[in-house]
Backbone:
């Protein structure tokens, strides 16, 4: 089945994007340790005497960092991820660089901030010429493959974005529907209505407030099918001579929080607590969530947790096969998610905002003999993954990367300069977020009427700046910006410095406009794509 989707290469072929010189003019360019892709043959020659580690990159959709047993959540049923965390390094304060699927995923893949990757909105397609770490691995001799959801927003084709074997959303769904003939659902079992129609039906339906299973058994689910394709690929790769880099990307636990009929009683909605909503949240709660009852909210939360358990089981199947084939002894395993998710925090059941529930994501890395077991509490970003993976796999670094390698942490040390803050952006709402260990800044122009479906009472409220003291207010309820103008100015400058160092239009920043106006110059989306459609 893979032959029609696989592009065979010589492994050591030189690859260089046509406009790399223009990109390297921007800040955050790797200098002394930057390797051009033309050095790939040197890496191959050096590695001839030993088999370099493989890569198994596991990624979920909308999996919040707080919904894992290893994060201290006793209600989360994630035994396989918990076991992975126990044998490797878990990053407990890891954050995405955009709380929406496509920008976050393409930023992670390219190692660049979303605005420099050219993808800040949901529907934007990543430029195929853009450098990314899958291309770097392919140029260094790795066989590359992906199965599942990637938000490339274009049909899959062999070699796209560096993947020799590629089955993404459209292709995987067609193959699943063609090859899997579902067994009948047991009589009397209530299941969710199909098709899923977000925003077209009330939120209680498309968010699965009834905590209803998808009308299929576990073995017939799409997520299980994706796991099986990944397992089959591992079996083929085990017999080959080249190291592999395999992405297994599941849609769960993204809404409508799918899970099979066997899991319909896994979690009792009545035991799920609904987060409190403060009076200061009232105006910003999206209109579509206003009519949800407490019982429906409990059902949504239970469905999410059940979908996360189903996701964990499928990743467990892939990990078990890796061990069965004894590939785990020389495979770098990375688990993460594109972004987090609000499950009632601040009245929201979505991402698309700057609260920690939406920004903090899981990150677990494991490689026997090279990665120590432990938990890192320093702040880290998705931007750090590309340089880390390329370093660990002895592949050429990207010529431009905005992150820093996490390799010191994996050896039980700290980097010379640990992050003092993280920066994330949601340009659909012209927002930027800065978080330190103590403070969280949310700044928006308030001028753009968002097109993502989450309108509020006041779609264009005008400029707003919020500051939360996370030591005293971890739930991010009380805005203390008025009492801390110096902190606000410092964090606004942090955001501005990040844009100035990474934005392709920094040379066009208006002069003498003041720090706030300069910051807001960078916040409107500039994607060469249609506006984001109303989808979660």
Residues:
């Amino acid at each position: 089945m893979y032959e029609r989707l696989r592009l065979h290469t010589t492994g050591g072929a030189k690859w260089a994007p046509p406009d790399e010189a223009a990109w390297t003019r921007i800040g955050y360019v790797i200098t002394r340790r930057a390797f051009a892709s033309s050095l790939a043959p040197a890496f191959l020659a050096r590695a001839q005497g030993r088999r370099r580690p493989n890569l198994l990159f596991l990624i979920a959709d909308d999996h919040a960092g707080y919904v894992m047993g290893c994060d201290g959540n006793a209600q989360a049923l994630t035994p396989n991820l918990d076991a992975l965390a126990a044998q490797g390094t878990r990053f407990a304060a890891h954050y995405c660089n955009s709380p929406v699927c496509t920008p976050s995923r393409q930023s992670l893949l390219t190692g660049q901030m979303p605005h420099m990757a050219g993808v800040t909105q949901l529907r934007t397609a990543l430029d195929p010429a853009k450098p990314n770490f899958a291309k770097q691995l392919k140029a260094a001799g790795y066989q590359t493959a992906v199965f599942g959801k990637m938000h490339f927003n274009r049909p899959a084709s062999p070699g796209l974005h560096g993947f020799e074997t590629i089955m993404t959303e459209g292709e995987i769904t067609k193959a699943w529907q063609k090859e899997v003939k579902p067994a009948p659902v047991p009589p009397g079992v209530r299941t969710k209505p199909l098709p899923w129609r977000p925003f077209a039906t009330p939120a209680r339906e498309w968010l699965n407030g009834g905590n209803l299973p998808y009308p299929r058994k576990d073995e017939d689910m799409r997520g299980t099918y994706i796991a099986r394709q990944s397992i089959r690929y591992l079996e083929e790769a085990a017999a080959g001579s080249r190291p592999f880099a395999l992405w297994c990307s599941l849609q769960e636990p993204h809404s409508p929080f799918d899970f099979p009929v066997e899991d319909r009683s896994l979690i009792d909605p009545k035991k799920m607590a609904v987060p409190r909503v403060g009076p200061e949240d009232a105006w910003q709660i999206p209109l579509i969530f206003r009519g949800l009852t407490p019982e429906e909210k409990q059902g949504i939360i239970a469905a999410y947790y059940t979908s996360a358990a189903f996701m964990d089981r499928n990743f467990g199947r892939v990990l078990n096969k890796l061990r069965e084939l004894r590939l785990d002894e020389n495979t770098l395993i990375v688990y993460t998610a594109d972004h987090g998710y609000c499950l009632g925090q601040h009245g929201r059941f979505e991402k698309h905002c700057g609260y920690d529930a939406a920004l903090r994501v899981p990150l677990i890395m494991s490689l026997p003999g090279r990665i120590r077991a432990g938990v890192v509490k320093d702040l880290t970003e998705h931007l750090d993954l590309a340089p880390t993976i390329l370093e660990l796999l002895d592949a050429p670094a990207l010529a431009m990367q905005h992150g820093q390698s996490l390799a010191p942490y994996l050896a039980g040390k700290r980097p010379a300069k640990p992050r003092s803050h993280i920066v994330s952006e949601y340009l659909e709402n012209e927002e930027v977020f800065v978080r330190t260990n103590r403070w969280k800044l949310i700044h928006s122009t308030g001028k753009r009427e968002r097109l993502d479906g989450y309108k509020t009472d006041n779609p264009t409220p005008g400029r707003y700046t919020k500051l939360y003291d996370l030591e005293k207010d971890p739930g991010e309820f009380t805005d203390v910006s008025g009492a801390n103008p110096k902190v606000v100015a410092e964090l606004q400058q942090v955001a501005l410095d990040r844009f100035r160092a990474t934005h392709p239009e920094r040379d066009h920043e208006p002069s003498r406009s003041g720090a706030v106006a300069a910051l807001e110059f960078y916040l409107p989306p500039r994607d060469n794509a249609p506006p984001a459609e109303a989808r979660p």
User: Anything to note?
Assistant: DSSP finds 15 helices and 14 strands in the chain. Residues 1-49, 529-535 have pLDDT under 50 and may be disordered.
